[in-house]
Amino acid sequence: MNIAFIGLGNMGAPMAHNLLKAGHRLVVFDVVQTHVDALTSHGAIAATSPKAAAAATELVITMLPSSPHVREVYLSDDGVLAGVAPGVTLVDSSTIDPHTAREVAVAAHKKGNPMADAPVSGGTGGAQAGTLTFMVGATVEIFDSIKPVLAQMGKNIVHCGAAGNGQVAKICNNLLLGISMLGVAEAMNLGVALGMEARVLAGVINTSSGRCWSSDTYNPYPGVIENAPASRDYSGGFGTDLMLKDLGLATEAAKQVKQTVVLGALAQQLYQMSSAQGAGLKDFSSIINLFRKTS
Ligand code: NAD
Predict the structure, then answer these.
(1) Contact (CB, 8 A) for 58 and 27
(2) Separation between Cα atoms, residue 60 and residue 31, nearest integer Å
(3) Is 170 a catalytic residue?
(4) In a mutational test of the pocket of ligand 1, which residue from 6, 8, 11 has the highest number of ligand atoms less than 8 Å from its CB?
(5) What domains lie within the chain, and their CATH numbers?
(6) Whole-prediction pTM value?
């Protein structure tokens, strides 16, 4: 299949590599030349703009930082919609706000192009291994048509409902993740301050009602889980600033529908504080250091 892939960063590059490995012909575009070179050296063809990349392809996939980038790449004069042939399906896998996802999908539809939002979870490890979860917002017909290609980059491909609902699923999950990590961080710090050994406490929590992914797979206390970011000074993983971005999307989307998200708003402020104190690029579980006793 002829596929245009736009946005070749930490996630996009390994996803594009998996499509090349699966035998697709890939036309790529990124504003950073070294990101393009890393793909063309493996057989992809470079395009000079999103418009040029989208021309003469059968599917367009984008993996961009945030909403303004998605608007620009799809809607500008040099954008995807200016170059793509009617009928070609467009898939945006960036994490953005549902409102923008729906707006761009409507613009695409008006030009005769079916569009899906398909944000992912699974991080860079999942992107490399081809085990991402895709949360797809689109009609059933669009979902069925793109599922085989998404399955070459991921292992769980979930239909979440109409356009925008992939983003809704993604931001609700990350809202909960941000909050649950804070809860685990608070409980671990308290237990250790009261004299308990961190591993023993985590073991009890993980076989009791406090158990969650933030406690049993990604525990923020150093040394509890060998391969968690907490055990390598919070390097790698999912950055505090990315969590901050997703909590911002969730609280902003909540405002639009006048839905209260008290804990999400508090979590957003705490990750913001952590970022301001220098942990923006560290894994988000480093939030535990915000309330860790230093004596
Ligand atoms: P990144 O910043 O590493 O990559 C984004 C890429 O887009 C960069 O190569 C950048 O040069 C390119 N870009 C920016 N503007 C562009 C434009 N106008 N035209 C073409 N290319 C442009 O980000 P990432 O970590 O790959 O994340 C991409 C998306 O996936 C984000 O929305 C992020 O929230 C989401 N996400 C990231 C992770 C993760 O662990 N990194 C996990 C799940 C979801």
Answers:
(1) no
(2) 17
(3) yes
(4) 11
(5) 2-163 (3.40.50.720), 168-290 (1.10.1040.10)
(6) 0.94
In degrees and rounded to multiples of 5, residue 42 shows phi and psi of -110, 15
CB burial readout 21-36, b (16+ within 10 A) else e = ebebebbbbbeeeebb
The whole-number average pLDDT for the span 5-23 is: 97
Question: DSSP string spanning 52-101?
Answer: HHHTT-SEEEE--SSHHHHHHHHHSTTSHHHHPPTT-EEEE-S---HHHH
Q: Kind and range of the H or E element at 264?
A: helix 262-274
The verdict on the CB of residue 24 being under 6 Å from ligand 1 is no
* pLDDT given for residue 212 in this prediction: 97
Ligand 1 atom closest to the CA of 123, numbered from 1: 40
Question: What is the identity of the amino acid at 199?
Answer: R
Instruction: Supply 166's token pair.
Output: 């992939």
CB 12 near ligand 1, within 6 Å: yes
> Pick the catalytic residue: 51, 147, 155, 170?
170
Tell me how far apart the alpha carbons of residues 237 and 22 are, in angstroms, rounded to a whole number.
26
CA of 294 to the centre of ligand 1 (A): 36
Residue 295 has a pLDDT of 63
245 CA → ligand 1 middle, Å: 12
Residue 100 pLDDT class (50, 70, 90 cuts): very high
